[in-house]
Amino acid sequence: MNRSLLAGVILLTGFGIKIPEAWSHCQVPCGIFDESARLKMMDEDLTTIKKAMQQIAVLHSKRDPSSLNQATRWVMTKEDHANHIMDLIANYFLAQRVKIVEKGKKDYEVYLKQLADYHAVLVAAMKCKQTADLSQVDGLARALKELAP
Predict the structure, then answer these.
(1) What CA–CA distances, in Å, run from 22 to 2, 26, 87, 145?
(2) Rounded to whole angstroms, how far apart are CA atoms 103 and 74?
(3) How do residues 39-55 score in pLDDT, each as one tens digit?
(4) pTM score of the predicted model
(5) Nearest Cα to 92, choosing from 12, 146, 24?
(6) Chain segment 86-141, per-residue pLDDT in tens
């Protein structure tokens, strides 16, 4: 990190402004890839999203200030973990792992399947951000399972 950027980060954090964490893999490219580790991370994100949705439902029914505060924190956690999945899909898999194959070339159908599978995960993660409906977690789980092979 260059000095002026570092100084800006220190200045902003000193004022209590949260700087988002960088979750994505490097874009050097370094050639160090571990899909199974990324899938494991996304599975943990999925588990957290599910727990968050369950906790939101429980806490929302209580309606006391402390419960509403905690429910808000679970909403923020759910959003963070859905964003993490979306960032991994976009910045790791789509930007680095999926190689463009021109129409008519060998493996074009495989390329289209990869794009569709990654797009399905992005949409499912977005739906988890938009709602506290546990059926959306099931959709995200199915989409992630398609990536495993």
Answers:
(1) 16, 10, 9, 25
(2) 44
(3) 999 999 999 999 999 99
(4) 0.78
(5) 24
(6) 999 999 889 888 899 999 999 999 999 999 999 999 999 999 999 999 999 999 99
Task: Quote the tokens at residue 104.
Answer: 């008519």
Rounded Cα distance between 124 and 34, Å, is: 23
Which 3 state secondary structure label does DSSP give 102? coil
Q: What's the rounded Cα separation, in Å, for the pair 46 and 42? A: 6
**Domains recognised in the chain with CATH numbers:** 34-147 (1.20.120)
Three-state DSSP at 22 gives coil
In this structure, which amino acid lies at residue 112?
L
What is the Cα–Cα distance from 64 to 120, expressed in whole angstroms?
A: 37
Q: What angle do helix axes 35-62 and 65-87 make, rounded to 10 degrees?
A: 160
> With contact defined as beta carbons under 8 Å apart, do 88 and 21 qualify?
no
